[in-house]
Amino acid sequence: MWISPYFKIYLIKEFQRLKDEENDRLKLNWDLQRTLAKVNYHIHTDAIKENLIPSEITKQQANSVYASEADILNVALFGMTAKQWRDTNPDKKGNIRDYAIIEQLVVLSNMESINALLVQQGLPQNERLIQLNKVAVTQMKSLVENKAVKKLK
Fold first, then answer.
1. What pLDDT is attached to residue 37?
2. CA–CA dist 107, 112 (Å, integer)
3. Is the pLDDT of residue 84 over 80?
4. Comparing C-alpha atoms, which of 105, 109, 129 is closest to residue 41?
5. Domain-by-domain residue ranges, the chain?
6. Average pLDDT, stretch 11-25?
7. How do residues 137-153 score in pLDDT, each as one tens digit?
8. Is-contact 72 81, C-beta < 8 A?
9. Which of 69, 133, 74, 145 is nearest to 103 (CA)?
């Protein structure tokens, strides 16, 4: 590099380009998992709408039910509600799920489907929380120890 400053600049720029490509690819994997969790969330919200929200309540009351159900998933997986996370992380934008790792997003996606089924079966919220927490612990343990998932990172 001491012989050719142009080569040194080229090497630095090329290295930066490769690092940018690597970061974009990793971000794409994360975005894919986040999108999957958002898509599965519709399964979850449909079950809530069909089984937990009476037609006579207001939109604000319905939103409260949706938020409560989202927090069941948050507590089961992350150990805190969305509000608790926001209070703990006032400097961060977005929500708890935006900062989740790939394994957590996979588990969250699975939990949304499982909770939809449990809602349809009429299980009370406290029983669903216990079952969902067991699922979260079991699946997180399995995914964290999985070599194939480690290759995604």
1. 62
2. 9
3. yes
4. 109
5. 24-152
6. 75
7. 999 999 888 766 555 55
8. no
9. 145
CA gap 22, 14 in Å, rounded: 12
Predicted pLDDT of residue 14: 83
23-30 long-range contacts, Cβ below 8 Å, gap at least 24?
26/153, 29/102, 29/152, 30/102, 30/105
Whether 38 shows a pLDDT value over 90: the answer reads no
Alpha-carbon distances of 31 from 35, 69, 88, rounded to whole Å: 6, 23, 24
**Paired tokens of 7:** 């080569």
Angle, helices 102-120/125-144, rounded to nearest 10 degrees: 150
Residues 6 or more apart whose CB falls under 8 angstroms from that of 109 comprise: 33, 36, 37, 40
* Non-local CB neighbours of 137 within 8 Å, separated by 6+ positions: none
